[in-house]
Task: structure prediction
Amino acid sequence: MTQEKKRIYQLAKDYKISSNAMLSILRELKFQPKSHMSVATPEMIAAVNKKFAEEKKEAKKEMEQREQAKATGRSSVRIGGIKVDNSKSSVAGLMRKIEKKQKRKDRRKRKNRHTVDKDAVVKSFKSTMANLQSGSKPKRRYRHSGGSEEVAKTPDNVLEVTEFMSVAELAKLMDHKPAELIAKLFELGMMATINQRLDLDTIEMIAAEFGFEITQMAEIGDAKREEEHEEDLVKRAPIVTVMGHVDHGKTSLLDYIRKTNVVAGEAGAITQHIGAYEVERKDGRITFLDTPGHEAFTAMRARGTQITDIIVLVVAADDGVQPQTVEAIDHARAANVPIIVAINKIDKPNANPDHVRTQLANHNLVPEEWGGKTIMVEISAKTGEGIDKLYEMLLLQAEMMDLKADPKIKGQGVIIDSRLEKGRGPVATVLIQKGTCRIGDSVVAGVTYGHIRTMTDDKERPLKEVGPARPAQITGLNKVPQAGDSFMVVASDQEAKEISVKRSQVKREYEVRRSLGHVTLDKIFDRIKEGQIKELKLIIKADVDGSVEVLSDTLGKIITEEVKTNIIHASVGAITESDVLLAAASEAIIIGFQVRPDSRARETAKKEKVDIRLYNVIYEAERDVKQALAGLLAPTIRENVVGMAEVRNTFRVPKVGVIAGSYVKEGRVSRNDKLRLIRDGKVIYTGQLSSLKRFKDDVREVKEGFECGIGIENYDDIKVGDNIEFYELIEEARTLDSVE
Result:
């Protein structure tokens, strides 16, 4: 466990002094902290401890002097230039006087200061749009007999806050005047305005100064969510995510269950998008999530486990446990979701289900028949063998979990996928988890909002309403939401828009602060290296948000100490002229996944010489980007020894220097070779030739068995018996695999 970092204002509290006083002490100790929010390094803490220990020694010495003064009749003593009254002095009193003296020094310094570090102010607080309301909390007040109004110090004195609240919003929540907060911030060395936005650390610090604790709200708008009522809970269908290694038969299993053929429409027979499908049979209803199986889709698979009740882990009986099988197990365990194993392809001649069971047992998935707790069902997605039993096991597991939801509240769920369709606009696949969603409802999904115009199921059949644990495709949002965004029904379009605006402003503030973030040692180190790192800039366009997310995640992770990718833009939709112009200005490459550039974009790309790469399978894009990055790698430099010569005589030539009369013992000597002068087995000098002669003639090369005259550039200390080794440097192209 790593120890939590202590900030300077917390260190000041430990010593019961103000943050400004602590900053002054640290600066006297030759440290340069930026503000009270800076992290106190171990060196700072040690120096402060030492200083206060010395002060305590001084105080102890003062007490001894006071005792002596009493004996001699003196009424006061002077410690460190401070006159201390014998009758009232103490360690605490002395510390207060030292602090007052320090404050007087600080005031004098401020009086003589005529400039303000504007860059520091901008980096600490960046102004954004004002009048953002965050939803105030009921005020707790009481009045004293004198009529003054204060915040009630109740035991639950906790504020629910959102990051990047303004000073005005925080003051309202704390029931204080904004001027009080601004004054306190100024006292702590921070300049702020009433509409200034504060990061979470600053909110926590200023709340603590006024006696409050804080708890962060998960998301703006959460207060609008309706709570389920115990008396209205009804049984709901389980949400099942199908996971496993590529080509182990996940989509084929769903094909058989749904009696459709999704695989035929997928590039390379690999599922490229996440889908939600509802299956209803006589014995019950189940909602399936089909996650892609290729390793490039790890992020999408992880998202699937966050909203699921049960995992079906598909493992091929003829292939066994593979890397993505292990990843799926890890994701399921991280989400604390039960796993049911479907051992597929048992109809194949080389199928070995028991070997699969043994491999899974090594990953702590022990089958029930071996005394474990994991349900394992042998199936064939081709013939249908074992499918009924798998369905039965899923319903049995769901029955044990007692899954319930309240259908009477406003709908709440999550965006499974989204895309932009011509003629329909943004289309989102949503999975309702609680409540009911109806046509005409006002909804919020992440930073997008809208009014539901149409709802259809996975077979494009129209729906009027959707209840818990049911998927639907909806239209009517103002923009394409991100896959994984929370989705909820609200009271009105106006309320939806207000929540969307607040979330958008917080998102912008986060992105701005992330780009202008406080300087840390890690960032300084990164900036030092930036001059050496080469990067490949990319613009990613895809047909659905899930693919955008996965491409960004996959290509963004291609990074070494020397080269990296930089994704400057990623969005859903066709490649437009705007994308091409951005690529031209940024010297970027456009990666298009299952989308095409329009005619104007093609013309502009040809004119601006922008490279557009189009793909239908994600791992092909990953391969090409890796090859492009490999071209940016500095080549490997390898030495190749080409010859060895022995010095048999030396001659000093005026205006030239010492020439070594040498005999080539091995290989050959060339004018362009580099050399090492070796004496008694040790390298004395490394350099290159200044001249190479045969008799009186300059030559380009001397082969083994011949004599020659060798001049070494800028070096004359050559002796008879020395050996000269000649070598050349060979550049070899590198791949990313060689440096990862």
